[in-house]
Amino acid sequence: MKPAQARLTQGPVGQHLVDMTVPVIYGITMMMLQSFADAWFIGQVGDRELAALSFGFPVLMVVTSVAIGLGAGTSSVVARAIGAHDHERAKRLATDSLLLSFGVTAVICAIGILTIDPLFTLLGAPADMLPLIGSYMRILYIGVPFVVVGMVGMSSMRATGDTRLPSKLMVIAAVLNVVLDPILIFGLGPIPRMELDGAAMAGLLARAIIFVGTVFFMHQRLDMLTFRLPKFPQLKSSWKDILHVGVPAAATNAIIPIALGVITAMLAKYGTDAVAGFGVATRIESLTLVVYYAMSAVIGPFVGQNMSVGESKRILTALRLCTVFCLASGLGIAVLLAAGSNVIPALFSDSNEVTDVATLFMWIVPISYGAYGMVMVMNASFNGMGKPMPAVAVSVARMVVIYVPLAFIGDRFFGIAGIFAAYAAANIVMGLVSYLWARRSVQAQCDKNVHRAPTVVAPTEAVVARYASASEATRRS
């Protein structure tokens, strides 16, 4: 095992981004395809089950947001420790992040299990669907700690610059889930037909296996875990550093599903078919945005390592390259989804009401996907700098200040189409704002780091100079 090196501070910027992003694309694509498969299998069971899955989606995203937030905090502090060549600190932070994520998610899941009926009633779920939703969510909540701890562990791996190993683990988890889905949903031999509960159980088993694999490889291959019990001041310091980025990052990500919960409640008045159609559309969206999720996963470690050494030009180059790619690929995605809008939704449901809503979404929202990709990348770069509050501000403005109010207005005058148009408008406006803000922040933060650097570097250079002079004098004598 070799200590992690700050390899992202040298070499071609574009090559680093490609080399790191491609494996993550594979991993996230497989996870999205697994979600796709879940929806398809449940769609074969019935539209009520598909609607129940859709009601649970915003809640699952809130919980996932906690994992993403803790992962962002972990990635930021570990990457900066690696950039400063402090491997022991990086290892301590990675270990303490797992302890923190397990404790946090255990509390969240306990609260979630106790509040299933009132929460989903608030989201507009019909009373006759509550038992179906409740049974599904209880299994889902039990598996959350495995999901979150595994995701946080993978964030530590990516902070070292290694994206291949966590991506392989994600692929294995997705394949296991898809293999288990039909067995548990429809039953096989002695295994009973579990339907919606089977989808939740498949996810639980797959994530538990990958959780074990993540911990094993963090310790054996990357030397990023320590089994020495930390002293309380150490633990407090680690958790404080992680939560400094992790709490705002979790809040940033939680804003999205909370807003989606509001939108789901708005759509519920059009019937459960409208909710099911929206659920189908959001799963299609998740799959098409996979490249942006991947870019946001790698830009944080890149920014963190380069921020530690004041390499503002490398960071600005990375942000520019990401922006150009987001805008170009976003346009292509919009064209492809519009072309397939009459075919893809029909894979999930035979109901015209369900497919009509999904088709409408695919005609309106994708035009803004390039800008949405910019928001993801810029928010991740803020977290990589250790400055999470601008990302919070961008997300609050996008979802709370622009999207939800415009959705109410759009709903009043244009119905469902107005709700979807509000989403596109929010993405476009905040994509531009986030890019301009990130550029300014990078330059300011790097200038600050450079000004601080002489107090650390100068003594070392002075010592080296003294030794060099002494060596030269010895040689001449």
TrEMBL record:
Q: What domain of life?
A: Bacteria
The regions listed as transmembrane in this protein's record are 21-43, 55-78, 98-116, 136-157, 169-188, 200-222, 242-267, 287-304, 316-340, 360-379, 391-410, 416-438
Q: Name one GO molecular function term.
A: antiporter activity
Does the record's keyword annotation contain Transport? Answer: yes
The record describes its membrane topology as: Multi-pass membrane protein
| GO cellular component assignments | plasma membrane
Q: What is its main location?
A: membrane
Alphabetized, the UniProt keywords read: Cell membrane, Membrane, Transmembrane, Transmembrane helix, Transport
From the Swiss-Prot or TrEMBL record, state where the protein is found: Cell inner membrane
PANTHER family per the record? MULTIDRUG RESISTANCE PROTEIN YPNP-RELATED (PTHR43549)
Identify this protein by name: MATE family efflux transporter
**Naturally occurring in which organism (per UniProt):** Woeseia oceani
